[in-house]
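ok, trying the design again with the full structure, not the truncated one.
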């Protein structure tokens, strides 16, 4: 059967001497794999379609399992995301967390729109760390683990100051937090941003300035939420950690 889909390349791997297998996050058909024959050859007309982060229209044949690319058109190459090390690292993280979280053929229209917007936001010069945290919130939402940030998950009060409890899936009031030694204190600024991230569509992201200490706090909180609720080891995140380590040395 012939398919025509809008998709974003979230993974690209060599297959045989001249081919590549790409994993697409599509607008209408979820996540799926497509063989791109001859993509490794210098003169291949499909080579650019197999590049990571490419957003395009893909036409392929598929009966069951892997599809075979017939034709494609690049809508946005996102070449900047492959050329700049920091942007490449963050884009790879967004792509890998999508690939590892979403099941094959699982509906992914919401994530497609958010990933598309997130990649474009980084190209436009918006803070890639902030973009990644917004996308992590969308991943948690898609997986059914959106944190409760308005009311205490222990007693439902809205009276803070709250602590973040990744294991409880949200915030705890002072009384309930006594029962969770791992609950994390939050500054007022970080808590406000966390709540903003939980409900913001990445397509609406404007210019936002966040203090370095607040970004460090946000990173720690989002890491804990992702580790506890999703718990998937990611190579791209390890690279981000190494990059952060050397940037501070």
């Amino acid at each position: 059967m012939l398919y025509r889909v809008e998709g974003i390349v979230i993974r690209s791997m060599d297959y045989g001497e001249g081919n590549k297998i790409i994993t697409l996050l599509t607008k209408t058909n979820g996540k799926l794999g497509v063989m791109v024959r001859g993509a490794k050859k210098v003169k291949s007309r499909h080579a650019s379609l197999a590049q990571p982060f490419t957003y395009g229209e893909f036409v392929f044949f598929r009966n069951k399992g892997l599809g075979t690319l017939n034709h494609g058109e690049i809508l946005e190459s996102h070449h900047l995301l492959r050329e700049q090390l920091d942007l490449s690292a963050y884009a790879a993280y967004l792509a890998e967390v999508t690939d590892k979280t979403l099941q094959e053929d699982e509906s992914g229209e919401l994530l497609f729109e958010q990933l598309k917007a997130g990649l474009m936001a980084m190209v436009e010069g918006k803070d890639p760390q902030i973009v990644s945290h917004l996308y992590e919130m969308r991943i948690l939402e898609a997986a059914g683990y959106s944190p409760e940030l308005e009311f205490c998950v222990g007693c439902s009060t809205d009276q803070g100051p709250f602590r973040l409890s990744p294991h409880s899936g949200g915030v705890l009031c002072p009384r309930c937090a006594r029962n969770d030694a791992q609950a994390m204190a939050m500054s007022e600024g970080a808590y406000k941003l966390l709540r903003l991230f939980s409900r913001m569509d990445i397509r609406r992201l404007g210019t936002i300035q966040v203090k370095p200490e607040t970004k460090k706090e946000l990173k720690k909180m989002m890491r804990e939420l992702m580790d506890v609720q999703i718990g998937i080891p990611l190579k791209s995140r390890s690279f981000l950690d190494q990059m952060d380590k050397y940037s501070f040395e």
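Keeping the full-length input from now on. The longest strand covers residues 2-15.
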